[in-house]
C-alpha cells in the first residue's frame, strides 16, 4: 500500500519505519522542518516499561482541590473557554476509579513490554546512538504510607510480569548514594532493574535518518497538511498538503495534539488533550557522583531524573491550560524543588523546555482504524509515555494495517 503518515515525532517516525519494514510505500509528512519538534524534543527520557499506571487513578480526584490551592502543586488546571478541555476533564474524572485504572494499567503494561521487545529488536538492526542505558529505575517515596501503597502496586504489577523490589531508605541509598540529599524525607523506594533511559529526540532523529535512506520512504518535512480528498465519502484518496496533493491508499494520523483537529476535518474526533509538561536539561561531568546514575522518580513531587550521557534530564508537572507557553514561575518552582533534593547540582546552565503531551483521559492510546474514514488509522494519545510505548504502538499498528497476526490484544486501543 501507499501510506501517508502525518506526524514526525517519535510516534510518527516509528510508525513510518515499521510500516516501511513491512514493505509498504510510505510518505512521512510534518509541518515542522525537523523531526521531534513537539513532545518528543526534551521529554523525561525514561523508558518506563514496568511503571505505566495512568494519571487517572482512584486517589487523584481527592487530591485535586488541594493541588489547585497550592502554588507548588505537580498538577495545575486553568479553566478555559474551551469545550474540548471540559469534555476531557469530565472523562478524566470518570476514569479516576480503581477498576478503570487497573484495566488501563494492564493494557499499558502489555503494550510497554511489547515496546521494549520491539525496541531491542530494532536496535539489533539499527544501532542508533541516543544515550541509551539500561540502568534501572528507582521510585522514591517520602512517607511510609505512600511506600506501603506502592507495595500493593508492586504486588499487582508482579502478576503482569514486572520484576520489582521495595527498598527501605538505607537500601535505597546503598543502591543510589546521590539521593542522600533527600535526607530524612526519604522513606524508601521501588527498584525496577529492567528499566531503561535514552534521549527521545536523538532516537527519533536517528531513526528518521534511516528512513531517508530507505527506497520505499519519502520524507516531506516543512509540509503542512491542509485537508483530505474523499470523493466517495468514505475513503481518502489524497492528502492535500503544501507542495501538492499526496495520492494515498491509507492515512495514519500520528500528529500528537494536532490529531483531533485533523480528525474533525473528516467529521471525527478523538478524546486527546494537551497536558503540558516541563523539563530541565542540565550539563554534568562524566564523573559527577552527585547526580543519580539510576533513573529516579520523586513520587510525591512527580519529578523524574534521567542521566543521558553528559546531561541530566529532569522533567515534571502537568499543566492543563491548553497553551504551549513556558511559564517562568513553574520553571522556578521546578528548580527550587530540584535544589532541595540535589543541593550541589549546578542549575546555572540548565535549559528549560515545555511540551504538550497528547493524552487520553484513561491514559490508553488510540491505535487502530478510525471510524471517520475507511482507510484512516490513528496512532496517538500516548501522553507522557510516548517514548516508552512508541515501538510497541508502531508494531501493533503495522500488524493491523498489514493484516498480520497481532502481537497483543488490540481491542483496548481501538478508536471508538
Tally the helices: 10
Mean pLDDT metric: 95
> How much strand content do the residues show?
15-25%
Rg calc? 21 Å
Structural class: alpha/beta
The span between the termini is 24 Å
Low-pLDDT residue spans: none
Which bin fits the share of residues in helices? 25-40%
Q: In total, how many beta strands?
A: 20
* SSE topology string: EHEEHEHHEHEHEEHEEEEEHEEEEHEEEH
- Give the overall form: globular
Instruction: Report on the biggest sheet.
Output: 9 strands, mixed
List keywords for this structure.
416 residues, alpha/beta, 9-stranded mixed β-sheet, 6-stranded mixed β-sheet, 10 helices, 20 strands
Can you walk me through this structure?
The protein is built from ten helices and 20 strands. The chain has helices at 10-21, 60-69, 83-95, 98-125, 144-158, 169-175, 200-212, 259-264, 328-341, 386-401; strands spanning 2-6, 25-30, 46-47, 75-77, 137-141, 165-168, 188-192, 196-197, 217-221, 225-229, 238-241, 246-247, 250-253, 273-283, 295-298, 303-308, 311-320, 351-359, 366-369, 376-380. The strands form four sheets. Strands 4, 5, 6, 7, 14, 15, 16, 17 and 18 form a nine-stranded mixed sheet that branches. The chain has a six-stranded mixed sheet with strand order 9-2-1-13-20-19. A three-stranded antiparallel sheet has the order 10-11-12, with no helix packed on it. A hairpin with a 2-residue loop joins strand 16 (303-308) and strand 17. Helix 1 (10-21) packs parallel to helix 7, helix 1 (10-21) runs parallel beside helix 10 (386-401) and helix 4 (98-125) crosses helix 10 (386-401). The longest helix is centred in the N-terminal third of the chain and has 28 residues, at 98-125. It starts with a strand and ends in a 15-residue tail after the last helix.
